Amino acid sequence: MGGPDHSGFREVDDAPQFGAREPDAAYPTRRGAHGIACNDQGLIALSRIARADGGVEYDLPGGGVDPGEADEAAMVREFMEETGLPVRAGRFIARVKQYWRTDRDETRNADFQIFEVAVAGPAAQPSEPDHSLVWMSPQDAINSVRHPAHAFALRTFLAQRGA
After folding, report:
1. 4 located within any domain
2. What's the rounded Cα separation, in Å, for the pair 156 and 163?
3. Contact at 8 Å (CB) between 144 and 1?
4. CATH of the domain at 101
């Protein structure tokens, strides 16, 4: 599998910033919280997203933090919605940012808070019908996630674990 282009990395506000701004486009910041879960075989949980055009994308499970919601609570909620896998928030891994254009053609600068998570029970059916849980080797996960910021977070997580 070919991985995403990780060029364009730069440090902004003490958080690695990925992606390139399009000229004359506004990039409102959207805070997000995502988790990294490993199973007993050392595989990484990813959210598989089926696109309307028949393509597939992969993300670290997680999503937007609602106003007044704690990062950890948002990550646990979003992880369950996207994968059906109940998790508990663990240690903070990294903060990373990503300029990107959503599937609704909206530009944003995602401000991702990344946590290690512990699986808290068996997987159920995700509540988001276009999402599903997949497990990948760490290298396949790094090569498959659509956001270079997520790949950076995975590499940071693995380096912290000495893997």
Report:
1. no
2. 10
3. yes
4. 3.90.79.10
Residues 21 and 153: their CA atoms lie apart, in Å, by 21
Q: How many domains is the chain built from?
A: 1
CB 154 within 8 A of CB 142: yes
| pLDDT value for 12 | 47
Number of H helices, E strands in the chain: 3, 9
Distance from C-alpha of 155 to C-alpha of 95, rounded to nearest angstrom: 13
Does residue 5 belong to any structural domain of this protein?
no
* Residue (of 88, 75, 82) closest to 125 by Cα position: 82
| Residue 151, both tokens | 């790949």
Q: Is the pTM above the cut of 0.85?
A: yes
CB-based contact 114:141 (threshold 8 Å)? no
The verdict on residue 7 lying in a domain is no
Q: Is 11 exposed, middle or buried (0-12, 13-18, 19+ CB in 10 A)?
A: exposed
Range of the domain at 110: 18-161
| Residue 62: strand pairing partners | 34
Q: Which amino acid is at 58?
A: Y
Question: Across all residues in the chain, what is the average pLDDT?
Answer: 92
